[in-house]
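The methods section describes the discrete structure representation at length, but only in general terms. Each protein is reduced to its one-letter sequence and a matching series of backbone shape codes. I believe one specimen quoted in the main text would settle the matter. An entry of this sort, consisting of the sequence and the corresponding backbone structure tokens, reads as follows.
***
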Amino acid sequence: MSGPTLRVEDVAQLDHDRRRRTGIPEVVFGEGKTPEQTLHLLAELRHGDPSAPALATRCPEEVLALAGAAFPHETVAVDAVGRTVTVGELPSPTGRTAVVTAGTTDLPVAHECRATLRALGVDVDLVPDVGVAGLHRLLGHLDRLRDADVVVVVAGMDGALPSVVAGLVAAPVIGVPTSIGYGVAAGGIAAATSMLASCSPGLVVVNIDNGFGAAVHAVKIHRRVRGG
């Protein structure tokens, strides 16, 4: 039997029971919605589940600009790089996920991942711009990666970095291919197929640019390991 839902005009049917069923709450996906719709849905999520922050991803610039004024009595975190808005106090973090990027251009996806992890109560260590074009940069951060419970690796171009990291750490590694790259990179398809064809065990791969999905997978690992 399905859980309770809230119909919001002719825009959405919010699933307030999702957190109980899956451990992950409903989240607003901002693309394809007007700013008014996104902010209204955020308000309804916050009202329906006041014990936790409400999150919107892939928000257009207007939503990022209006979010603070739309929730004057709330704590609002706007990440312009990751295009996320979080409304409400963040939960106390448990565990730790390292989020690693191959290049600076992968940061928007990494920031989306970081905002999602924080909203869901997991501590984050961001390690940017350590791709295989200068592998010595990664080696200088191995202690940070090995201290993490889960490692998310965000990479475009040839998508090689997650395979390298999975061969260096004991923690589960989640690869996120990005749509960064020239010509035959094909909008992230080359990176995705490279990660999927990896010979490094312990690597799983989410969809192209899906920082949110990688964060959710990491959170579920944390909660199972820690009895949540």
Q: What stands out?
A: The CA atoms of residues 142 and 168 lie 8 Å apart. The chain has a mean pLDDT of 92. The chain has nine helices and eleven strands. The longest helix spans residues 211-225.
